[in-house]
Design goal:
This protein is mainly beta and about 160 residues long. About 15% of the residues lie in helices and about 35% in strands.
């Protein structure tokens, strides 16, 4: 009687072993054809944030720092790793003294470069601003504000 029980169990074991090893066997691996997939270039809106945390695209006027405003900006290469502009920097706090009171704070022509693109969701933000005078030397009141980090929203 034991033999009658042993034969079906053995047959079942052989059948299971054959089925399981047949399913997991190597058949030559993955076959790769053609060139590797390339990354899709990112496109989307690009912004900069001003001193007050507002986002702008190609601003004509903007407060770069708490003391310096930029105006009459004409942009080139917006959206590239470095956006360039020319415009006017103004000492809004009259640190250097306003010659005509607060009516005409001192200003000078500058070249502006925004750089350091940081991607946030479906948009990107410039994280750095640099100002250089069109006609050097720069006035003393721009020192320390000629290169500054810009706010970038959290992810």
């Amino acid at each position: 009687m034991r033999l009658f029980r042993l034969v079906p169990c053995a047959a079942l074991a052989v059948c299971l072993t054959t089925c399981l090893t047949g399913c997991g066997g190597v058949d030559g691996g993955v076959r790769v054809e053609g060139a590797a997939a390339t990354t899709i270039p990112w496109t989307g809106p690009v912004y900069m944030t001003d001193w007050y945390g507002r986002a702008w695209q190609r601003p004509k006027e903007v407060y770069a720092t708490w003391r310096i405003s930029l105006s009459k900006l004409t942009w080139r290469d917006w959206g590239s790793p470095s956006a360039r502009a020319t415009g006017v920097a103004t000492d809004d706090t009259c640190l250097s003294g306003c010659p005509d009171g607060n009516d005409h704070p001192p200003s000078f022509q500058v070249k502006v470069v925004f750089s350091g693109l940081v991607k946030r969701g479906n948009a990107a933000f410039y994280s750095h601003a640099a100002l250089t005078p069109v006609h050097p030397p720069a006035p003393f009141w721009i020192e320390g504000n000629d290169s500054t980090d810009l706010d970038v929203p959290d992810a």
